[in-house]
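Section 5: illustrative case.
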């Protein structure tokens, strides 16, 4: 029997990049997953939490539990939103067994593909030099890849997945796990710093010959794409789900 998955779509994807949500759906269905999109879902509350408005997050967290608790898994094409659920909802659910179960079965999209469905290789062809941006939440909170400040053998299932696609050449960056500078409300409160950090990341990809810039978080890509478009750089930006669905 196919696993029944609740598709959790971040606000900015819903409003600005619906094609990313559709690509995520198509990839999951390709691998035999029974996907539902609960239309009553709302924001996870991350913007409010980032600005210290934790009281405003509580009703959203409780609504999230009610909407998604009945699924075999919850999958989201955003490491930051998944991290919000798995690492920042606990204060609202002390000793709540239902939430503990939901937290354990909430996954970032590629984490679900590689570690639950155990997809390690992909058919298809994508003849481009691809630059992988490792977003901070996915890297340092969800531990989806190794970070440079931690000793130990390197790992990263998304990198392995991309390398399995015919025609993909991965860019060799000088600083492979540096922040893009977006940080949600940080980009508003510290605009100049945010833009300088983003420009540094774009320059690193440019010197590496990146043709297609991808990541697990459309929020980071939104920030970088704005810089790329304003500076008229010859780099195409695609969420990882868009690359995978094009291959499939």
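Designed sequence:
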């Amino acid at each position: 029997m196919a696993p029944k998955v609740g598709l959790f779509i971040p606000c900015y994807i819903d409003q600005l990049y619906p094609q990313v949500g559709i690509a995520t759906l198509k990839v999951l269905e390709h691998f035999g997953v029974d996907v539902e999109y609960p239309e009553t879902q709302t924001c996870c509350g991350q913007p409010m939490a980032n600005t210290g408005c934790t009281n405003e997050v509580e009703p959203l967290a409780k609504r999230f539990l009610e909407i998604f608790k009945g699924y075999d898994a919850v999958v989201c094409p955003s490491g930051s939103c998944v991290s919000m659920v798995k690492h920042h909802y606990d204060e609202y659910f002390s000793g709540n067994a239902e939430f503990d179960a939901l937290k354990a079965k909430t996954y970032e999209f590629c984490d679900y593909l590689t570690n639950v469905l155990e997809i390690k290789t992909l058919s298809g062809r994508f003849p481009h030099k691809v630059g992988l941006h490792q977003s901070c939440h996915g890297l340092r909170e969800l531990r989806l890849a190794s970070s440079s400040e931690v000793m130990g053998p390197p790992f990263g299932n998304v990198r392995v997945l991309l390398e399995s696609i015919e025609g993909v050449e991965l860019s060799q960056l000088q600083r492979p796990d540096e922040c893009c500078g977006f940080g949600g409300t940080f980009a508003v409160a510290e605009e100049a710093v945010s833009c300088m950090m983003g420009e540094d990341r774009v320059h690193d990809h440019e010197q590496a010959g990146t043709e297609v810039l991808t990541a697990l978080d459309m929020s980071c890509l939104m920030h970088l794409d704005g810089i790329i478009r304003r500076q008229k750089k010859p780099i195409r930006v695609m969420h990882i789900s868009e690359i995978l669905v094009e291959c499939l």
